[in-house]
Amino acid sequence: MAAIAALALTSGPATAAESGWKLGKPRLTTPWANQVSPTNALPEYPRPQLVRENWQNLNGVWEFAGAAPGEVPPIGEKLAEKILVPYPTESALSGIQRHEDYMWYRRTFTVPRNWNVGRDNTLRINFGAVDYKAKVWVNGKEVAAHQGGYGAFSADVTSALKPKGEQEIIVGVEDRADATWQPVGKQRLVPDRGIFYEGASGIWQTVWMEPVAAKHVGTLGMVPDLKSSTLKLTVDTGGGSGLTVEAVVRDGRKVVSRSTASAAGTISLPVPKAKLWSPDSPFLYDLDVELKDGRRTVDKVSSYFGMREYGTTKGADGKLRFTLNGKILFLQSTLDQGYWPDGIYTAPTDQALRFDLEQHKVLGFNTVRKHIKTEPDRWYHHADKLGLLVWQDMPSMRTGGRPPVDAQRQFKAELKELVEQKKNWTSIVGYVPFNEGWAEWSREETGKVAESVKAQDPTRLVNAHSGVNCCDSLGDSGKGDVLDWHSYPGPAKPMPDAKRISIDGEHGGYGLEVKDHMWFGEGHAYEMVKDQATLNSRYVQNQRDVLASAQSCGISGSIYTQITDVEHEVNGFFTYDRQVKKMDFAQVRAVNQAIIRNADGSGSGAPDPGPGTPGITGVHAYKFNEGTGSSAADSVGTANATLTNTQWAGGVEGGALAFAGNGQADTGANLVNTAGSYSVSAWAKLDEAGGAFQTVVSQDTDRDSAFFLQYSGQDQRWAMSFVGLRALSPEKPEVGKWYHLTGVRDAKAGTLSLYVDGKKVASQNACSAAPSTGHTVIGRGQYGGQQVDFLRGAVDDVRLYDRPLSDAEIATLAKRD
Which of 284, 339, 388, 615 has the fewest Cβ atoms within 10 angstroms? Predict the structure, then answer.
């Protein structure tokens, strides 16, 4: 490999000054930026699972020019600017540092004579990734076209070559980013100082060329089978017939097995007494493959693989859990966006690319979620070698609206390409097609997409929709292997069902500003803290909550936001430039390792809360029949409610209490145990039903209401809610109409349900809830420690119960005499 790397360094000019390339001015620089030059722009062999001896790197300084739509390629013309490939045009490392919708790349190259191209071999030029539409010309002849900013492609350029001397290559690129429906991930033409960032256009992964025989190994398919202790190998020969494969499996220098078989089918390579791959022991076998036509060897490639198996099983607590190699393993992960202040989408060096993954191990994580982005092959190679499991997201289309049919079709085609190109990596545990409803177009179609991915790669898990409880989600399709919720700061607490494990797909996001290490000079997060000590304590407590959720709710993994700051987001373990550690890594590692060690499926689940008080009178009740005065009587208990800015009004039966958007009825007591089971019922009507939240009944904590029986303005529906979780009615309520609402929290079943007019209309999985010592309040809620969501309407007959009511009891309550 050292010799191969040395060969890669032979092309390109010697210095930046000689090449005409000049580094831009990044707002922040990583420790590796000064190691980048025209002679060593990512010189490493780019395809670790299909290695050939002869190759040449085409990274380095290319000519560059912006273009207009419909321009003919500038064949034989020098372009005015110089760009360092493979860094995106917007990056400082590219030397261009701006976006172009259309652009040209140009350079010349020579083909080594000893490659025997045109006689024994063809010449292939390979592209790791170009964003977004690319066309390639060699010596004026179009040789390739590709659409999709995240997939690799290559071209046989032999027929376009001149007999000798310099050859010209031109690459034309179109990238209009979020001005279209193309998959863009987090890229935006105009970053929002929020969760969307700078664009990354053009060539952003390594370009290289290699001599390849006409009959050759196109791709390898490698599927470990632990039951038979074999590797199932398929060799794509591009349609060549009558070929055979000789495959050698090695453990270092030791030959484990040799096999010879037809290249036309699946070959079972013995791996006796297999050493299994895991985060604690990431052992990888080497694989050599020779393709033969009769007795003649026509191609040789080297590769590697890990013996491992992903699955699910029920833990001792009866909940479905994730397994690695048949054993329950908790997937302790960070969110990894893969952004760099100097290279944007492209890490400055291979050492930098590896750094973030190494730090996951230092911090005690065993998993990483590659969020709304893909990476060069070497990133996955590093994950394989380090022993990090990977959740692989599909880069999403833009947010806002639903994509048209042609965009849906292209998204599915690019997702299929992603799975096909990623399915050999040992570390990839599962695929995530959708995130928080971003550009989702149909709940049914989301399910079909999940099933399609599973059919394409049945050896891994499919997480149909990360954050299915959040944002623009169209709801749970019920498909895939994973139920995934997001909650900030969380953690999210979904319970597994009979067929799907559950995970907390995003949580945390605690932020700390570090002077002189922020992209914009200031930043934001889901919760900002004042200093490192507070950041440490908030993280540790949050992770203890993760462990509690794993033990009582049965989640199989959690994903903390995030490994580094990114642009305006300052919620990383590192600053964006990777220069400053923001937490005490020893504390982080200790709590992370405790979660992995103790989240073993042995939890007993939620305790039995007991039967509660029988009858439908309730443990507290408010009829609002006084008609006068500044308090409302508790007709069952002793917690009379103090009234502020309210008026007496006519109710469903007798009197009611009216609210004008600034009033409340404070019971002065903690009326329900929110860590257990309870029910809350009330008659309610609205004076307006717009985009504002309005709360009928809630119970305070030190920060957010423990529950909200409410009108959700975001959804314009009735709801029984926890923060980040809502059981919603199917229809918008009518203004001025009385509705009977009942919210039921069943701690034993782990559910949160809403009944409207006596009928159950929604139920959500809600494993656990924090205890509350605050007052039960009618007419408003609490969020972030503030009184919010004041009701504009009226309330009658509020009742509270210390148990989950039955369907029949709720139907009785909703009847009018």
Answer: 615
Determine the Cα–Cα distance for residues 333 and 128; give it in Å rounded to an integer: 26
Identify whether the C-beta of residue 36 lies closer than 8 Å to the C-beta of residue 61.
no
Helices of type H across 719-760: none
Q: What angle do CA 417, 422, 425 make, to 5 degrees?
A: 170
Domain positions in the chain: 33-43+60-205, 216-225+227-305, 330-584, 620-814
Tokens of 520: 């914009």
What is the distance between the alpha carbons of residues 712 and 519, in angstroms, rounded to a whole number?
Answer: 36
How crowded is the C-beta side of 732, counted as CA atoms within 13 Å?
11
Tally helices (H) and strands (E) across the chain. Answer: 9, 50
One-letter identity of residue 75: I
User: Which 8-state DSSP code applies to residue 496?
Assistant: P
**Residue 664 has which token pair?**
């409340």
Question: What is the phi/psi pair of residue 451, to 5°?
Answer: -65, -35
Structure tokens at 7: 């060969």
Mean pLDDT along residues 331-339:
98
Using the structure block, give the residue that is written with the tokens 């760009």: 83
Q: What percent of the chain has pLDDT over 70?
A: 97
What pLDDT was estimated at residue 12?
37
**Contact criterion met (CB below 8 Å) for 572 and 562:** yes
- Is the preceding peptide bond at 73 cis, omega within 30 degrees of 0? no
The CATH fold assigned to 33-43+60-205 is Jelly Rolls (2.60.120)
**Cα-atom radius of gyration of the chain, to the nearest Å?**
30
How long is the chain?
817
**What percent of the chain stands above pLDDT 90?**
91
- The distance between the two most distant Cα atoms of the chain, rounded to a whole number of Å, is 102
CA 579 – CA 325 distance, rounded (Å): 37
Distance from C-alpha of 389 to C-alpha of 368, rounded to nearest angstrom: 6
SS3 state of residue 330? coil
Nearest to 680 by CA among 812, 804, 809: 804
What is the DSSP code string of 62-79?
Answer: EEEEE--TTPPP-TT---
Count of CB atoms situated within 10 Å of the CB of 477: 22
Asked if the 216-225+227-305 domain carries CATH number 1.10.10.10, the reply is: no
Q: What phi, psi does 698 have (nearest 5°)?
A: -150, 175
CATH class of the domain whose range is 620-814: mainly beta
| Contacting residues for 812 by C-beta, under 8 A, at least 6 apart | 616, 758
646-695 pLDDT, tens digit per residue, is 999 999 989 999 999 999 999 999 999 999 999 999 999 999 999 999 99
Determine the distance from the C-alpha atom of residue 271 to the mean position of all C-alpha atoms in its chain, rounded to a whole number.
Answer: 34
Quote the pTM value: 0.88
Mean pLDDT of 224-243: 92
Q: Which of 452, 407, 411 is nearest to 431 (CA)?
A: 452
Q: Which of 319, 323, 320 is nearest to 311 (CA)?
A: 323
Residue with tokens 């029988």: 614
Superfamily per CATH, domain 330-584: Glycosidases (3.20.20.80)
Residue 133 pLDDT exceeds 90: yes
Angstrom distance (rounded) from CA 698 to CA 809: 21
Beta strands 56-57 and 207-213: pairing type?
antiparallel
Comparing CA positions, the residue from 557, 552, 504, 574 lying closest to residue 366 is 557
For residue 809, CA distances in Å to 296, 374, 719, 753, 759 come to 82, 53, 20, 14, 11
135 CB contacts (<8 Å, ≥6 apart)? 73, 142, 144, 145, 171, 172
Distance, in Å, from the CA atom of 343 to the CA atom of 93, rounded to the nearest integer, reads: 6
Point out which residues pair with 501 in neighbouring strands: 482
Domains 330-584 and 620-814 share a fold: no
